[in-house]
Amino acid sequence: MTAKNAQKSSPRPARAPQTRQAITLELVAQLVPSAVQAEKISSTFALDPVDFDGVREGTEEHIGTMAKLLEPAVNETAMRIHLQRVVGALVSSAHGAATFYSAKITVARELTTKLANEDRDEDRDGVLGFDTKAARAREFAAGAGLAAFALYAAATGAVHAYAEITGEEWKPYVAPIDQPRSVSRQAAAAELDALG
What is the pLDDT of residues 55-74, one digit of tens each? Predict the structure, then answer.
């Protein structure tokens, strides 16, 4: 019984506050291929080009249409909150695709660089008529790059639509960080714990 009470009354270490990086459209823009790069990827790998402006304008139009349909039933504050979530989801999706693209570039480079290969299989040509593992990795990274660029276009359109509808610039929602308990709250918790 004494051991139990001793364990109960031991103070709990305070958690260090966590900082989260906000996912912004600017952050996504740093990770995705540029328009010139996307065009180069498309022509080099014989992939369909991304209609950046078409995707951006289409997304902006669809969000505007959705807002008009919701307008009679949703007040201004609720609309802002809803659009905040919709735009945040599109920007987060583009960010996820952009980080995936970055990871696939790394894999493709490692497989292509002969000295980075552990098994050195890429030093030799693949089976006749089949791509090598490095070639497949480069092709996969190219597809991932164009996907990230297209999702960035959609996120850009969503951010523009938010500004058009609300009259405010979109900013990512950042959840409040748990604040460490004050000394008086910690003392009160310790006293209540002592009481059983």
Answer: 999 999 999 999 999 998 99
What the block records as the tokens of 125 is 């040509």
Q: What is the pTM of this model?
A: 0.75
Query: For residue 194, which amino acid is it?
Result: A
Asked whether 79 and 161 are in contact (CB, 8 A), the reply is no
Tens-digit pLDDT profile for residues 87-144:
999 999 999 999 999 999 999 998 888 645 455 554 555 555 557 888 899 999 999 9
Question: SS3 letters for the chain?
Answer: CHHHHHHHHCCCCCCCCCCCCCCCHHHHHHHCCCHHHHHHHHHHCCCCCCCHHHHHHHHHHHHHHHHHHHCCCCCHHHHHHHHHHHHHHHHHHHHHHHHHHHHHHHHHHHHHCHHHCCCCHHHCCCCCCCCCHHHHHHHHHHHHHHHHHHHHHHHHHHHHHHHHHHCCCCCCCCCCCCCCCCHHHHHHHHHHHHHC
Break the chain into its structural domains and give their ranges. Answer: 22-173
Whole-number Cα distances in Å, 193 to 16, 70, 145, 184: 23, 50, 55, 14
